[in-house]
Specification:
Strand order of the largest sheet: 2-3-6-7-8-9-10-11
Helix content: 25-40%
Distance between the termini: 36 Å
Strand content: 15-25%
Largest sheet: 8 strands, mixed
Order of helices and strands: EEEEHEHEHHEHEHHEHEHHHE
């Protein structure tokens, strides 16, 4: 891992995500090294040529910059994070995300956290001090072998489900992002029913579902994983490249039916 400690001029940025006003990204890059990650586009704007998942820039002054920006920010929802994971492994050492949450605890702004790491429980004390916080976990499969191959340095799925249950028990609003569901690996009826059932048992009532987007640099990394572990699936994934939306629409219909049977609200 190539780690650089850097200074930033801005950390609270306007978001283009529907329903989200601001994004806070305490790090540039992500140590989870997920094969399907869409955020690799940031390499074009940050001067990085390294392979995704092998570099992280730590925005050392992020809490101080956030405090300055919040003094003149208009009300709105703040999201952690849009192009990194605020609780990736280096957060345990640097605590940049925790520092930012300490700043936000003094403001009347709702905060939403999306992560793949059970480390978020470390900051439960701060999360409970925020206005209308919610914490979401990305969970794309219950199969740990699949998880290790596509999300090698993320928290194990059982740890995420246990963290969700602890957050529910603490009274924190939670939801799960089931995306991207992986064709022929986690998008089947049996696999989705098991996944949704595990989410319900953790006490979560709401999910968001998405399909795999193979445009851009993601396809090269996904193909590498497939060729090493699931070579028989490569032709099927290739067939989806130009036909994502028919597949996507069929997947959403199937997910809606399973979620309804399971008792989950779905977006």
């Amino acid at each position: 891992m190539i780690i650089r400690e850097i200074e930033c001029k801005s950390i609270l940025t306007r978001s283009g995500i529907e329903g989200v006003d601001y994004a806070v990204n305490p790090y540039v890059g992500c140590g989870h090294a997920c094969a399907y990650c869409y955020a690799t586009f940031i390499k074009r704007f940050t001067g990085h040529s390294e392979e995704w998942g092998t570099f992280v820039d730590v925005r050392m002054n992020a809490p101080e910059v956030l405090a300055r920006q919040l003094r003149r920010a208009k009300p709105g929802l703040v999201m952690f994070s849009s192009v990194t994971d605020a609780y990736q492994p280096l957060e345990r050492r640097y605590g940049i995300t925790r520092g930012c949450l300490e700043v936000l605890a003094g403001y009347d702004l709702p905060v939403s956290i999306l992560t793949k790491s059970s480390l978020v429980l470390r900051d439960l004390d701060l999360i409970r001090r925020l206005k209308n916080p919610d914490v979401a976990f990305t969970i794309t499969t219950l199969d740990e072998e699949v998880r290790k191959r596509f999300e090698p340095y993320s928290s194990p799925i059982p740890a995420r489900l246990e963290a969700l249950a602890a957050l529910v028990e603490a009274g924190v609003s939670t939801w799960v992002f089931c995306g991207p569901l992986l064709p022929l690996l986690s998008d089947g009826e049996a696999e989705m029913a098991a996944l949704f059932g595990g989410i319900v048992r953790a006490g979560v009532k709401s999910i968001l579902v998405d399909s795999l987007n193979l445009t851009g640099a993601a396809w090269g990394r996904v193909r590498t994983v497939l060729e090493e572990h699931y070579p028989q699936l490569v032709p099927h994934y290739l067939s989806l490249l130009p036909h994502r939306w028919p597949y996507h629409n069929a997947l959403m219909e199937r997910a809606q039916q399973i979620a309804t049977r399971t008792g989950l609200a779905i977006r």
